[in-house]
Please model this.
Amino acid sequence: MRHWRTKLLTSIVLYGAGFMTAVYVLAPPPAQPAEDRKISERYAASEQWGLEADADSQNRGAALRAGMDKVIRFAEENAVKGVQAIKAQLDQRRLPNGQ
Model:
């Protein structure tokens, strides 16, 4: 009876964790006063290139999206191949046993 509740709770927790991770990764860094700001690669690049950094981030976002689409397609294709391979192995094991 409680099995579906456990699955639902686990799904909600995992979905929430994934969503919070995405928000954390995509959120801009907090603004800091100039005297407290540590020089990082991101800060140095934005200071050096100015407004081009914003356009570059759009290009990086588009490239990231294209890469994610490739990964999803790859995963879908290999999932189908994996299921077919498992079914073939199960069929081979069932034949000698007479099932």
